[in-house]
């Protein structure tokens, strides 16, 4: 069901400022996009086959803005690629794992995503991610 780590989401106040660290190490941004439904600007950096996803809020109402306000910048979530996001959500729900989203939504790169509540994953917000070609 779980294929691999898809990305690590890092909440930042400014992608441009955060990129200074990554570019100093020779890394480049593969892709930048705005995800209006989640009120974020996203920059993807591929490192050895795993993406680092920098998340910059575009609104004070963004979940990322709220996370930064509460905890500061830093690791926001870990995302796993799954073959069938709906089946994964159903299995987790049946096993009593608390979910943030019971239905997937469209996220960056036009992937289907859903979040598992940190209470069910040792305090780590966890995202499930599925390519829409499945």
What is the strand tally? Answer: 8
Count of domains: 1
Which term fits the overall shape? Answer: globular
Overall mean confidence score, pLDDT: 93
CATH class (first level) name: Alpha Beta
CATH fold-level name: 2,3-Dihydroxybiphenyl 1,2-Dioxygenase, domain 1
Sequence of secondary-structure elements? EHEEEHEHEEE
Largest sheet: 8 strands, mixed
| Count of alpha/pi helices | 3
Strand adjacency order, main sheet: 2-3-4-1-5-8-7-6
Strand content: 35-45%
At CATH level 2, the architecture is: Roll
Straight-line N-to-C gap: 13 Å
The gyration radius over C-alpha positions equals 15 Å
> Structural class given helices, strands, pairing?
alpha+beta
Report the CATH superfamily: 2,3-Dihydroxybiphenyl 1,2-Dioxygenase, domain 1
Low-confidence stretches: none
Bin the helical content.
10-25%
What characteristics describe this protein?
2,3-Dihydroxybiphenyl 1,2-Dioxygenase, domain 1, globular, alpha+beta, 39% strand, 8 strands, 134 residues, eight-stranded mixed β-sheet
Q: How are the SSEs ordered, and which strands pair?
A:
Elements: E1 2-11, H1 15-24, E2 31-35, E3 40-47, E4 50-57, H2 63-71, E5 74-82, H3 85-94, E6 105-106, E7 112-116, E8 126-130
Parallel strand pairs: 1-4, 5-8
Antiparallel strand pairs: 1-5, 2-3, 3-4, 6-7, 7-8
Care to describe what's here?
Strands 2-3-4-1-5-8-7-6 form an 8-stranded mixed beta sheet. The protein has a single domain (2-130), classed as 2,3-Dihydroxybiphenyl 1,2-Dioxygenase, domain 1 (Roll). Helices cover 22% and strands 39% of the residues. It is an alpha+beta fold and 134 residues long.
